[in-house]
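Example S7 (structure tokens).
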């Protein structure tokens, strides 16, 4: 019996990728008769003395991005492997299924997307429950660590802690990896660095575990680092979906009346798409600290409220590369050109 997995090896994308990142489809794990943890251990053994971050993916489920946009597919387990080993206490983390409730829809308005035909009835995974987090502290509650490798924020940011290298993978990029589509790879840059800090209120999120309903809301920044927010992640490479993919998923939220700054996050990408689409932005609800960060990358209230030609849905998607700011020196790759499919002995 062999276990199929995907790996973006260190050095892929013309040397841009600084470490190994492996992805396993939940269906392949079940076909091999393994648990998620056992599958991660099989990959660790297959890599031998090499190291990698590992994401377990359920392509029939859904997840939510940090700015409140629902995505097809979900990370349901994360691991860090080094020299064939997974740290028994902190090397693997199960991502919890979050059951539907009317209370969630009321308290987390971005989750109204779950009720649409795109996602209705699918299982939701965002972050680990308190039971799955175990005795992790708030500083590593969504992270795994083994030897050289840390897999952070529920599988969206991984690091080699010896070589001091790091790479990001916003979730839509991971979906493209699993479906054999296309990705853009380059430096995250200041705009993405600011954008990933623009969060929404939710329980058991991919970035913030536990209950942040009282700590954060749409229109706020989790970075709270002023003009320095744009430098937090700007030098890290990132694997992202093409911008027309991000536009499609974001427009689904705008189409049902979700408002940036009130219901969904005020990231530069969301704000620029809403402006181009002629949709309301709750500028009054965007916190002053968030405005400082947005203005540092050229997203001002004056710009958002200035008159401009409203585009149709089709026009927004067709012009997404011009509308959505962010990423530097990015190059488009077919996933098949940067990702290997391997089979590990079970």
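Recovered sequence:
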């Amino acid at each position: 019996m062999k276990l199929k997995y995907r790996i973006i090896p260190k050095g892929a994308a013309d040397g841009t990728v600084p470490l190994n990142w492996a992805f396993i489809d939940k269906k392949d794990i079940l076909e091999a008769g393994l648990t998620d943890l056992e599958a991660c251990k099989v990959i660790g053994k297959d890599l031998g003395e090499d190291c990698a971050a590992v994401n377990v993916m359920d392509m029939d489920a859904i997840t939510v991005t940090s700015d409140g946009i629902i995505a097809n597919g979900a990370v349901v387990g994360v691991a860090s492997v080094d020299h064939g080993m997974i740290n028994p206490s902190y090397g693997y983390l199960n991502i919890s299924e979050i059951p539907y409730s009317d209370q969630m829809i009321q308290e987390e308005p971005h989750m109204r997307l779950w009720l649409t035909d795109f996602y209705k009835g699918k299982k939701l995974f965002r972050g680990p429950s308190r039971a799955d987090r175990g005795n992790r502290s708030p500083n590593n509650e969504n992270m795994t660590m083994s030897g050289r490798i840390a897999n952070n924020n529920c599988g969206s940011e991984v690091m080699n802690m010896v070589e001091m290298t790091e790479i990001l993978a916003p979730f839509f990029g991971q979906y493209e990896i699993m479906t054999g589509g296309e990705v853009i790879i380059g430096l995250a840059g200041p705009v993405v660095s600011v954008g990933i800090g623009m969060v929404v209120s939710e329980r058991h999120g991919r970035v913030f575990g536990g209950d942040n309903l009282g700590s954060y809301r749409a229109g706020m920044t989790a970075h709270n680092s002023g003009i320095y927010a744009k430098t937090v992640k700007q030098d890290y490479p990132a694997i992202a979906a093409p911008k027309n993919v991000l536009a499609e998923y974001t427009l689904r939220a705008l189409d049902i009346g979700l408002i940036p700054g009130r219901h969904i996050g005020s990231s530069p990408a969301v704000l620029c798409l809403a402006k181009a689409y002629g949709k309301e932005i709750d500028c009054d609800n965007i916190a002053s600290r968030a405005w400082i960060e947005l203005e540092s990358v050229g997203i001002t209230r004056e710009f958002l409220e200035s008159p401009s030609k409203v585009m149709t849905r089709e026009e927004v998607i067709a012009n997404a590369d011009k509308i959505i700011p962010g990423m530097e020196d990015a190059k488009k790759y077919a996933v098949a050109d940067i990702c290997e499919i391997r089979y590990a002995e079970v």
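Notes on this example. The chain has a mean pLDDT of 95.
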